[in-house]
Amino acid sequence: MADFQVGGQAVIEGVMIRSATHISTAVRRADNSILVKTTEHTPLSKRYKFFALPIIRGFISLFEMMWIGISSLNFSAEIAGQDIDLQEGKAPEEIKKTSSIMLALSIVFALGMGVVFFFFLPLWVASLFGLGKDALMFNVVAGSVRVVFFLGYVSLLTLFKDFRRIFEYHGAEHKSIWAWEMKDDLTAIAAKKYTTLHPRCGTSFILIVALFAILIFAISDTLFQVITGQPPNLFVRFALHFSLLPIVSGGSYELLKLSGKTRDNKLTKILIKPGLWLQLITTKEPSLDQLEVAIVAVKASLQMPQDIEVREFADA
Fold first, then answer.
1. Other C-beta atoms within 10 Å of 96: how many?
2. Nearest of 274, 254, 144 to residue 197 by alpha carbon
3. What is the CA radius of gyration of the chain?
4. Which of 145, 146, 167, 207 is most exposed, with minimal Cβ within 10 Å?
5. Is 25 helix (H, G, I), strand (E, B) or coil?
6. For residue 102, what pLDDT band results from cuts at 50, 70 and 90?
7. Of 10, 277, 281, 276, nearest to 155 (Cα)?
C-alpha cells in the first residue's frame, strides 16, 4: 500500500486529485488535449493543531473538501464553456470568465436547496407519521426518507448523458487511486483492472452520515424531551439537528477514515458494503481516455513527471 492517501472527485470532463501537498484538476478539452491545473495546498488540520483534533478535523475537512470540490468543478465548467464558445466561433478575447459573485451565489443557492431537500423535508415527512414522542422511530423514518431522497436523486442523474460521463470519470478517479495505493504503474492500462468501488469514497461518507445522524439526533431529541418535558416541534427539531451537524459530520469522518484503514477486517467489510453498493450508481466503467485524464491528475498532485504531453493551466 502507498505511504499516504490521496483522494479526489470527478468534475466535468475530468478529475480532481488531492495529495498531501497539492491539488490537481485535469480535464479533457474539445481538441482532445489534457489541461491540468495544480496548486499547492496544506490542509487546515496540518496548519492548526486545534483543527487536527478528532471530530473537529472531520468537520473542518468536510467543508474544506466542499470548497475545493466546488472550486474544481467551477474550473472544469469554465473550461468546458470556453470550448463551447470556441466551437461557436467566438474569439478568445470574447470569452468571459465566471465571476466570483456568480460562483458565490450558485454555492449559496445549492447549499440552501440541499438543506431544504435533504434536511428539512425528511423531518417534515417524518412528522406526518405522528412519531414526535418516539425519538428513535422519528429519526429512523427521517433518516430513511433522507436516504431514499438521495438514492432517487442520484438515480435520476444517471439518465442524463452529461452526468453519466461524470460518473464514468468518478470510476476513473477510483481506479487511478487504487493503482497508486497498490503501488502499480500509473498508466491507464494498469489502472483499468481495478474496481470502480472504493471504501473511502464520498458517496460512502454520505451514507455513513445518514446512518450516524439517526443515532445522534435520536439522543439529542430524547435529551430535549427529558429536560423540557415535551418533544421538540418541527422547527425546534430542525434547529437542534442543524446545530449538531459538526458532530455528525466529524464523527462520520472518523468512521470513514477507520474503515479505510481496516478495510481488510471481516467486520469492516460487512459494514462498508452498503456504501460500496451505493457506488454502483455513482460510478460507471470509464474508457481508457478517461483513465488517462485521471492518471494525469494523480501524477500532477504527486509532482511526478507525466508520460504524455499535457498543458499546464496558467491563470492570467
1. 11
2. 274
3. 21
4. 145
5. strand
6. low
7. 281
